Amino acid sequence: MSEKHVVTMGQQFGRRSWAEPWKIKMVEPIKTMSPEERQRAIEEAGYNTFLLRSEDVYIDLLTDSGTSAMSDRQWAALMLGDEAYAGSRNFYDLEEAIRTYYGYKYIVPTHQGRGAEHLISQVAIEPGQYVPGNMYFTTTKLHQELAGGKFVDVIIDEAHDPASLHPFKGNIDLAKLEDLIQRVGPEKIAYVSVAGTVNMAGGQPISMENIKAVRALTDKYGIRVYLDATRMMENAYFIQEREPGYEDKSVAEILKEFCSYTDGAWMSAKKDNLVNIGGWLALNHEDHFEAARNLVVVYEGLHTYGGMAGRDMAALAIGIQEAVQDDYVRARVGQVRYLGELLTDWGIPIVQPIGGHAIFLDARKIYEHIPQDQFPAQALAAHIYADSGVRGMERGVVSAGRNPETGEHNYPKLELVRLTIPRRVYTQAHMDVVAESVKAVFDRRHEAKGLRMVYEPKYLRFFQARFEPVA
């Protein structure tokens, strides 16, 4: 959908309106609160939107993880859960679905994506090895570090520029990757960590041409490539839309081809696979599979359930089938794009091109007067909630954490607020409300003040840190 998704009187402007490829069968009431109640709630939460009660949130754009609406087929599948401790038939259905649509040989189920990240880090990383990748993700990087590895960012430079219109800002810079390999030696590279799409860059995709080139380069040095497949459906859609030669291929065909250039993948099924809980690790090499299947028994559960109930695996197998449907992916990305185009039309700076799962507000640009050590993105997320009850989240210096050697804040070039759209949950009217709230806060931007951190946990501080306004 490259055109603007305006549905009111669309035909008047020479185009046909579009609608979501589903209808609503069940509703969940949400409540609004007064401005005074919202201000009190964000203060009690320490200006951290993760610490708000969900019942105090009007439109929840904190994350797309586990927040999707399941289909009637998925809800029906919950009643067909085989809850046997070992050998559940639902595991074999899940295994077949992953092999069919992703193409990997061996499957290890986990309770969610974080469990799969932990397993691959433990079996594939030796202390002192490097893990190059196309920009870090918070939990992935932490698991790599806890296994003794060191993440190295080898994404193209355009990914760090919110205004760049590069169509594939998730691409790996092959020169950076090969320079690292030659500098430390191939044996010091645990694997190449590829994310599609790249969350921290604004939901930006990696091209098929780039992953082919990465495969060719790593084959030369005998290095494996592992994929964070969490949002690969959206990545496949962008390849279909933007890359020559793929416009007539289906999302399912593109997904399977992309995965064929990797040695395995970990998955947070709470995103693309349209379930509220679950994950998996898929591998093509028996050595890492045998090690992971052994470790999953220690950390997650038996290798035929891995922390999920049988009913969860049943819903997940169906979610995989539904998520590759072209009409669904087109509407999913289209809703994100609709919100982004509203904000762009009003001159509000966001990461461009608009990504697949979220709008990323450029907090550094919006709050130019707030220094980065006063957490402008954290402040912006809190101010949007106070204005309307819309909950987003910070993706900037708080998420980046501290340098483990110096103890100083890491200062990323991107200081963003992520407004993440759950799948099959909200309507276009909700997106209008969100856009109007962001504009109201943007119009008052010169009055805004920064924050100071008053509580900081040791790991993944953005989840639990607390703040207060600077004097």
What order do the helices and strands come in, and which of them pair?
Blueprint: H1 35-44, E1 59-60, H2 72-78, H3 89-101, E2 106-110, H4 113-124, E3 130-133, H5 138-146, E4 150-153, H6 174-184, E5 192-195, H7 208-221, E6 225-228, H8 232-242, H9 251-260, E7 264-268, E8 279-283, H10 286-299, H11 310-323, H12 326-345, E9 358-362, H13 363-366, H14 376-388, E10 390-391, E11 393-395, H15 397-400, E12 416-420, H16 428-443, E13 451-455, E14 466-469
Parallel strand pairs: 1-10, 3-4, 5-6, 6-7
Antiparallel strand pairs: 2-8, 7-8, 9-12, 11-12, 13-14
Share of residues in helices: 25-40%
Structural class: alpha/beta
Residue runs with pLDDT of under 50 for 5 or more positions = 1-11
Q: Return the domain count.
A: 2
Mean pLDDT: 95
The CATH superfamily of the largest domain is known as Type I PLP-dependent aspartate aminotransferase-like (Major domain)
Number of strands: 14
Helical stretch tally? 16
Instruction: Give me the strand/helix succession.
Output: HEHHEHEHEHEHEHHEEHHHEHHEEHEHEE
| CATH fold group of the largest domain | Aspartate Aminotransferase, domain 2
**Percentage of residues in DSSP E strands:** 5-15%
Radius of gyration: 22 Å
Protein architecture, described:
This protein folds into two domains: 10-60 and 326-465, Alpha-Beta Complex (Aspartate Aminotransferase, domain 1), CATH 3.90.1150; 72-323, Aspartate Aminotransferase, domain 2 (3-Layer(aba) Sandwich). Strand 3, helix 5 (138-146) and strand 4 form a beta-alpha-beta unit. Residues 1-11 have low confidence and may be disordered. It is 39% helix and 12% strand. The strands form five sheets. The protein has a five-stranded mixed sheet, sandwiched between helices. The protein has helices at 35-44, 72-78, 89-101, 113-124, 138-146, 174-184, 208-221, 232-242, 251-260, 286-299, 310-323, 326-345, 363-366, 376-388, 397-400, 428-443, and strands at residues 59-60, 106-110, 130-133, 150-153, 192-195, 225-228, 264-268, 279-283, 358-362, 390-391, 393-395, 416-420, 451-455, 466-469. With 471 residues, it is α/β, with parallel strands linked by helices. It is built from 16 helices and 14 strands. The longest helix has 20 residues, at 326-345.
